[in-house]
Amino acid sequence: MRPFDLTAPTTLEAAAGSDGTFLAGGTTLVDLMKLNVLTPRRVLDINGLPLRGIDAGDGLRIGALERMSDIAAHPGVYPMISRALSLSASQQLRNMASIGGNLLQRTRCTYFRDVATPCNKREPGSGCPALEGANRMHAVLGTSDACVATHASDVAVALVALDAEVRLTGADGNRTVKLADFYRLPGDTPATENDLRPGELITEVVVPRLDWAANSTYVKVRDRQSYEFALCSAAVALEIRDSRIVDARVAAGGVATVPWRLPAVEATLRGEPVTLETFEKAASVAGEGAKPLSGNGFKVPLLRRTLVRALLELTEGSR
Fold first, then answer.
1. Which keywords accompany this UniProt record (predicted)?
2. pTM for the predicted model, two decimal places
3. Which of 34, 111, 140, 144 has the smallest number of CB atoms closer than 10 Å to its CB?
4. Is the domain defined by 213-314 classed in CATH 3.30.390.50?
């Protein structure tokens, strides 16, 4: 780890617009600094800022510094959010990691984290070894010739499914961005991962009220039961009346370069009966546009099976 200056602003005004790197839980930043993947000269500890609180009144508002474990345990949090948080990392990390930091965490691509290898995210223009190298964990959706790294966050998948927004504060004031629009596909510029401007920070996560999202779940498939990132995941919420699906929200993780909303799956589910045949038909369109690599072609059928599993789990008492 290289030397850096550490300060701790006590007001949002003092932090906003800073040229430093923000530190909350530090569960990603400190790791990457130890590996010299990130080498900030100035680090700002923002834990003293008034960015906490969970309000589950009309919709859901979560302060950016709220810890993952506290959000997961809150009774007003939709099940898919709570489950996605509970299946993330380890209990110790969930006790430390903030929701804002989780949404901004960097990819777990081994080439990104190894400074001895090229990586377009870390060094633009250097190349993407994963295209021809070890790519079992990499994305099949939303990829480009410059990057195939998967997005790491579990809870971002659930939040994108629920049309969540992030409130941002910077030198130019405050603004609100839909989380789905906040993340950027890699294209030719994979080093630019989101719409965050210099000196800007997330202050709050806002989830619109959706009463039927109480009927939701998050299913995560991984190589081991704990402390492992998703090979594939599915966030699903269903509104069901008279054994028919009135509305649906569906997104996937572990298979794409950003949290991947699945509108075609949602459209296929709407108006259909709650049956296995309906679920299999909807899941069959989930992999449209996928571009498998040499080692991750299994993710396309895995995505379909994961969606069917989530839908069956969610409708166990409705079939």
1. Oxidoreductase
2. 0.97
3. 34
4. yes
